[in-house]
Amino acid sequence: MGSSYVVTNDSGDVASVGPVGRSALPVGDLLDTTTMTVDLSVPKCALAVGAHPDDIEFGAGATLAKWADVGCRVHYLVLTDGSKGSWDPGEDIERLVADRQRECLRAAEMINGGAHLGESGDRVHFLGQVDGELVNDHDTRREVVRVIRSVRPDVVLGHDPWRRYRLHPDHRAAGFLTVDSLVAARDPHFFAELELEPHRPTALLLWEADLANHVERATGFTDAKVDALMCHQSQHETTMGLDPAKGRRSGNEGEHEGEHSGRAAFAAQVDWQLAQHGALAGLDAGEAFRLMDDL
Fold first, then answer.
1. 46: which strand partners?
2. Residue 47 in contact with residue 153, Cβ under 8 Å?
3. Residue 292, beta-bridge partner list
4. Three-state DSSP class for 177?
5. Is residue 24 assigned to a domain?
6. For a FRET experiment, which of 118, 189, 194, 277 has its CA 20 to 30 Å from that of 27?
7. Does residue 258 lie in a domain region?
């Protein structure tokens, strides 16, 4: 697992322990709050809005797999093309974009229990904005509103735009796009030219929560989350710290060789993070969110 950090409280007691450096997952640490709810009623339909093709699984993969397992119709909306997702200066960007779309479709199928979702885009929606250049502007909000009013989800999930010290601009923009578009989708005088009936979801769940107040149980769905994330092969090195040539976890002491051990090391990181999230509500494993249900 590599090196660890230790966080202490004001009294000097250990408050949390976790991995450091490249072994940390891109979902963020947690701040505890005084009131924590657990498990929404399973929605009939959910829409997850991610900045990049792998963000949805990192933020809510176990929750979506859990819901899909009992009949929820899960939709993805991926806002950017993922074209910056490589460290190779000579990368074929057109091929990378195509690869990331295929990976996203496969990951969505894993979340949906292996169901074939096809290539039609009826469950996985690609907005195609340029990676790293996402903007919360009028035209982009219109397209997000179009998807919300067409899909008509009970629950919308997305990035928390208010998370402090967030570095990636797309994650900030994606969060505000989701929140602002939800407001527009519910009210009839926004984007009336779409000629789609307004829609008001019952709940909004924001992952990477700055102040989490809700946890969804993840027990039994860790493998689904990991399997879906592993579908994003183009991101094994840049996001997951896996050696693309050998399938191993890199940057750690005593790194393990082979695809199986690489997956196992990555899965251990996911397990650790789900345990931290679940602990906020006294659970063995969970995914933490900011729940907003007064929409």
1. 74, 155
2. yes
3. 204
4. helix
5. no
6. 118
7. yes
Token pair 């009336």 is found at 192
DSSP tag of 201: -
Element (H, E) at 148: helix 138-151
Residue 90 tokens, joined = 């000579």
Q: Quote the CA–CA distance of 16 and 120 in Å, as a whole number.
A: 45
User: Do the beta carbons of residue 203 and residue 292 sit within 8 Å?
Assistant: yes
Backbone φ and ψ of 21, nearest 5°: 65, -145
pTM for this one? 0.83
How many Å apart are CA 32 and CA 7, to the nearest integer? 13
Q: What letter represents residue 140's amino acid?
A: T
Q: How far apart are CA 196 and CA 184, in angstroms?
A: 12
CA–CA gap between residue 244 and residue 91 (Å, rounded): 14
Element (H, E) at 281: none
Of 10-24, 72-86, 217-231, the least confident = 10-24
For residue range 98-130, list pLDDT tens digits in order. Answer: 999 999 999 999 998 766 665 545 789 999 999
pLDDT of residue 263: 80
- Cα–Cα distance measured from residue 151 to residue 257, given in angstroms and rounded to the nearest whole number: 43
Task: Tell me which residue range forms the domain holding 278.
Answer: 35-292
pLDDT band (50, 70, 90) for residue 264: confident
Distances (CA, A) of 113 to 119, 170, 292: 17, 29, 28
Identify the pLDDT of residue 256. 41
Which burial class, exposed, middle or buried, applies to 42 when counting CB atoms under 10 A from its CB (0-12, 13-18, 19+)? middle
28: in domain: no
Total structural domains within the chain: 1
CATH number at residue 236: 3.40.50.10320
Lowest mean pLDDT among 83-87, 176-180, 278-282: 83-87
Residue 204 in contact with residue 183, Cβ under 8 Å?
no
**Within a domain: residue 15?**
no
Where helices occur in 79-137 by DSSP H, the ranges are 93-111
Average confidence (pLDDT) over 33-53: 92
